[in-house]
Amino acid sequence: MSGMMLVLVKPLSAHPQCLDFEPPFKPPSHLEFCTQYELFGCCDQDSDNTIAERYWDVIDQLDTAGHELCEDMLKEIMCQECSPYAAHLYDAEDPYTPVRELPGLCLAYCSEFHGKCRHVVQYLTENQPLRDAAERDASAFCSLADLSDRDYCYPNVLKSPGLNSNLGQVAEDPEGCLQVCLTEVANSLRNPVLMLHGGDGTHRMFVAEQLGFVWVYLRDGSRLEQPFLDMSGEVITTPWLGDERGFLGMAFHPEYRVNGRFFIYYSIQVNNEPEKVRVSEMKVSAHDMNMADPHSERTILEIVEPAANHNGGQLLFGLDGCLYIFTGDGGKAGDPFGQFGNAQNK
Fold it and tell me: What is the separation of C-alpha 151 from the centre of its chain, rounded to a whole number of angstroms?
């Protein structure tokens, strides 16, 4: 590479996520309890009802003065499971620590909560240190209720422009879809490994199968009868579920519309030699834009890959016009061969 690019980014980047690690959504029906999240959040009606039941179970444990003092803050805290930032509030993204039973609380709010609601902590968590701290003093309790990433503590997470601008502003399409909608465009394929277009304005999609076939799909969704490219006689692969060899990558030259050049990446074995991955340049037929010229292959690179997995395969053109080749890391449980491809080899 001839240079480096420095990109300045905002110090805070919104990352909404639910406790089940799924994205937030618009509930399909009205929420009766955690109504502040009925337009966009992490709860459907069932989970909302479950939180409400738990809330009333806690309220039933309190005397009149206790629940009148604490009921609003208690509801706010329990409803954070429905927040679009629930995974952050409950520190669920750290795989080395258990998910919190209470959301992370900002200091000022935590102090107020402790003053009004310390008597309910015992009903909200089985965490004995947190229970003991609540009985001791606000400082000890709020130290444990704090979040390492304070951008996401409650209620400041609701006030941050960086976290809330455009949050949940999802426009319906003509069919009423509010989330990522999938439309089937192809079927009856055998291990499809990639789909891309040539950037030539024809709106054709090229779909490759691991076996070595590349098919052309037209704008109306129909597939041409003959493959654009048939490398099945060259490619090595098997029906074995864990076999990651085969036709693995393809990229069209940025000027494909003009020069008809494209590049392929596939597994190959010749004359009982060690298995390899090969990167080649090819050209489209001069007579049919839906057929590759089978005699145009020019080998650019071959790398020994003795394992049947982790063979890489991605080919991408960068903005600099260079072709980037991703070759995998050796495979077979840490590259026991010792010299082929492992990224840790120096």
Answer: 22
End-to-end Cα spacing for the chain: 19
- Enumerate domains of the chain plus CATH numbers: 35-164 (no CATH), 192-325 (2.120.10.30)
Query: Please, are residues 85 and 18 in contact by the beta-carbon 8 Å criterion?
Result: no
- My answer on whether omega of the bond before 103 falls inside 30° of 0, hence cis, is no
Strand residues in the chain grouped as ranges (E): 192-196, 205-209, 213-217, 229-230, 247-252, 261-268, 276-283, 298-304, 315-317, 323-325
Are 171 and 123 spatial neighbours (Cβ–Cβ below 8 Å)?
Answer: no
- Of 28, 33, 43, 32, give the one whose Cα is nearest residue 83: 43
For the stretch 56-110, pLDDT in tens is 999 999 998 888 899 999 999 999 999 999 999 998 866 556 778 999 999 999 9
Amino acid (1-letter code) at residue 305 = E
Cβ count within 10 A of residue 273: 10
Closest-CA residue to 212 (of 189, 195, 235, 193): 235
Cβ atoms of 278 and 269 closer than 8 Å: no
Q: What is the pLDDT of residues 153-209, one digit of tens each?
A: 999 888 877 777 666 565 666 776 666 667 788 888 989 999 999 999 999 999 999
* Predicted TM-score (pTM) of this structure: 0.51
pLDDT in tens, 148-161: 788 889 998 888 77
Q: What are phi and psi of 49, to 5 degrees?
A: -65, -35
CB 311 within 8 A of CB 295: no
Q: Please, are residues 263 and 253 in contact by the beta-carbon 8 Å criterion?
A: yes
